[in-house]
From TrEMBL, chains A, B:
Keywords: Carboxypeptidase, Endoplasmic reticulum, Glycoprotein, Golgi apparatus, Hydrolase, Lysosome, Metal-binding, Metalloprotease, Protease, Secreted, Signal, Zinc, Zymogen. This is Carboxypeptidase Q. InterPro entries: CPQ, PA_dom_sf, Peptidase_M28. It comes from the Bacteria. The keyword Transport does not apply. It holds the Pfam family Peptidase_M28. It comes from Gilvirhabdus luticola. It is found in: Endoplasmic reticulum; Golgi apparatus; Lysosome; Secreted. The keyword Glycoprotein applies. Its main location: endoplasmic reticulum. Homodimer. The monomeric form is inactive while the homodimer is active.
Length: 467, 467
């Protein structure tokens, strides 16, 4: 029986190996677009489980679901990797208003930033000072800030084509705004939502107090872009308006959680690992369909498609569902620690954490030699309208694996709509387009297939490609 | 005074000409993304005017609005070009159900196809036969078709990456389904909506009876994809189920309408014309935001940005808002007729009629020599993630201008979501992303700028580009 099984395996391998890479990619895209599972999986994750902030019941359910789904794929190994994660809870819905001199109030849409402390139970009411960066804050100094709320209102720059770059140019207001404002005696922080669109939705996201003493920690919240514009206009008319907000969020003790991992054992180089992943946790306002349910189901689909299409990899392929990307990166840190302690040779790590939109290409963190090798694969992707290969950041969760020998990569989907939904209550399943999601999964599977077949050595693979 | 004006013009021209092409493109994109007007215009066209089927009040209002907006741009000339257009009206909302042997009925979502005749006032109830193409229909023949309704159910192929190609593989069912079915004595036609997604929305679109005698014209309607799937399943269980539908649409006499045209007179070669356009008419179910409100406002934006940025074109640049693309192409035909009769030398015509999604590139109908010239411009577009230059169909409205000397081109946006909205009630303004629309307008302006600057002669412009 064993011999028969072996011969069958050899036959299947020969069959796959006798196909050109172009033929294999065609099968991968066709399978993803005609009988893919990514969309159905995401429907369940988003609509049956929903939001899954680290330490929440949703996150726990997502771990169980992820493991059960991987178990059903017939992989060689599926397991949970324990990791302690922070648990922050939002509590009651936040409430805020602007109050004019005459006592008239206008409610505005805010949400606490992840990791923020609560306001006092009755809320905070104070004057509010608009600034656009930390320099402006420092120039104002304690005289103008003490006892007031600081309002960071630097918008994302609309003329930057890649919206992630525009995000990068603003996010320090959110992440470090409280710690900077508290230096000058501010009593609270309101941050313009990281959103290129004008709408009414506040966008949450992580912030830090670093080592700030507990007594100096001031509550921080995001305000919707429409309300940021209104607040700014009202301040231009009268600097003495007051801002009130109330939030009851809380940081609890760390709790037990898990990365979920599945593996197909490599047939030739089982000790060389290729991983593909996204993060299983999400913020609590939406259902995390784009951030990063999409990356999770696309990564699962990579291994499912390989099994489905009898692609028998030479190297060991793992899907990793990282826990706690949003507010701690504990899962990614743990995964890299364990990999290091076991001396596991990770040759390639691919992340999808930029939304489930139409894939445009990939970014790579690697040597020039490897990058040139990768560029030779570009023509294989052109029929699928994947045109954009760049050197650049790959992703937060594969980041801790960075080394001279590990090639890191990130899927690069279209970014124009991403920040309309990012960390907000409209990051929901209805904003996902099935085909776009499936094209991403197929693109990722294709890249993993090529890295598995040709390895990551920097020798030119031009001739191999021609086969 | 005239001399001063002339000198000023020369100064401005020198200023623009002294900028590199890369600098000009940067200004164009920045202007479109930071103080563009396309989105605001589309908001008005979609939400204040709404649907604008040829001959409707909406179309009439759109003509007035288009002319008034162009008048406000300070162009050299704005005018209406008269054209007679067909007027088809939908009448009361359609109604349809499936009836099983036991008499149980299930309502389904249909809409009359544009150009279809009505059913008798009481509707039609008949057996229904599913086919997938005209060959299958012919094989069944009169014996199996006579007195029945024909149900065309060939879906768009999901594994075709460019969804317009998948559309092209299906649309003959809609356009010629009635004429084919009537050959075998069918009493009506139901066509699966041209939609890659499974949902409840019927998608309309044009159909033809050609020269079929009036008595043989049978009513045709589209059914939603979900209902097409259900109907097919029910037919698999019982071929004797009945289908009922009722529609009261009507073709009226042709009415007067207009193409709306605006022009900036060329400074060096005023008798060489470059045009950019889309179609002002739309189907009646949604508000036509993607098809083709987007193309209209992007085309308007091209001329507005040129004025705004003091780009003083050498050639005459026209925006053309074509009337009646959807069900007659009368506006495009008229425009080309007039251009020919006046011996106007059209050197380049660019159309945007593939939705307001993220632009990916352009298609060109031209000689290889000109195409190679265009390819040399590609690096200028890469910072804006415009990667996809192809030879291929440009668009229906610029089509009649086709000649050996006129270069035709079409904007190629991302196509994945387009047919979710195409000709359906959800082709509405909320499905438009402001940035995606603006990126398209900037890409079009950039291409027009380059064609104006370098002309369409086939001489290599590599050296020009380097300036």
């Amino acid at each position: 029986m064993k011999l028969v099984k072996y011969l069958l395996l050899v036959l299947v391998s020969i069959q796959v190996n006798s196909q050109s890479d172009a033929e294999v990619l065609e099968k991968i895209y066709k399978a993803s677009l005609t009988y893919g599972k990514s969309y159905e999986w995401l429907d369940y994750l988003s609509n049956q489980i929903g939001s899954r902030l680290s330490g929440s019941l949703g996150a726990e359910k997502a771990v169980e679901w992820g493991k059960a789904e991987l178990d059903s794929l017939g992989l060689d190994k599926v397991w949970l990797q324990p990791v302690m994660v922070p648990k922050w809870i939002r509590g009651a819905k936040e409430y805020a208003f602007i109050e004019t001199k005459s006592g008239r109030t206008t409610t505005v849409n805010i949400c606490a930033l992840g990791g923020s402390v609560a306001t006092p139970a009755l809320g905070i009411k104070a004057n509010i000072v608009e600034v656009h960066d930390f320099e402006e804050l420092a120039d104002l100094g304690e005289d103008n800030i003490k006892g007031k709320i600081v309002f960071y209102n630097r918008p994302m720059q609309p003329d930057i084509i890649n919206t992630f770059e525009a995000y990068g140019g603003c996010v320090n207001q959110r992440y470090k705004g409280a710690i900077e404002a508290s230096k000058y005696g501010a009593v609270g922080v309101i941050v313009r939502s990281m959103n290129l669109r004008l709408d009414d939705l506040p966008h949450t996201g992580s912030m830090t107090y670093e080592n700030l003493s507990v007594s100096k920690r001031i509550p921080s919240a995001a305000i919707s872009t429409n309300d940021a514009e209104m607040l700014s206009s009202m301040l231009a008319l009268d600097k003495n308006i007051k801002f009130y907000f109330k939030q009851s969020c809380k940081q609890l003790a760390d709790v037990q959680s898990y990365n979920v991992i599945g593996e197909i054992r490599g047939s030739e180089f089982p000790n060389e690992y290729i991983i593909v992943g996204g993060h299983l946790d999400s913020w609590d306002l939406g259902d995390g369909s784009h951030d990063d349910g999409a990356g999770i189901v696309q990564s699962m689909e990579v291994l499912r498609l390989m099994k489905e299409l009898n692609i028998n990899p030479k190297r060991s392929i793992r899907v990793v569902m990282f826990m706690n990307e949003e507010n701690g990166l504990r899962g990614a840190t743990k995964y890299a620690e364990v990999a290091k302690s076991k001396n596991e040779n990770h040759v390639f790590a691919l992340e999808s954490d930029a939304g489930g939109f139409t894939p445009r290409g990939f970014s790579f963190e690697c040597s020039d030699a490897v990058y040139n090798k990768v560029l030779a694969w570009k023509p294989l992707f052109e029929p699928y309208l994947i045109h954009h290969f760049v050197k650049g950041g790959s992703g937060a969760d594969v980041g801790p694996l960075k080394s001279d020998t590990t090639v890191l990569a990130g899927l690069r989907p279209d970014t124009q709509r991403y920040f309309d939904h990012h960390h907000a209550s409209n990051d929901t399943f209805d904003a996902i387009n099935k085909r776009e999601l499936e094209l991403g999964a197929a693109s990722m599977t294709s890249l993993i297939y090529l890295f598995d077949k040709y390895g990551t050595s920097s020798i030119s693979n031009q001739e191999q490609i021609k086969n």
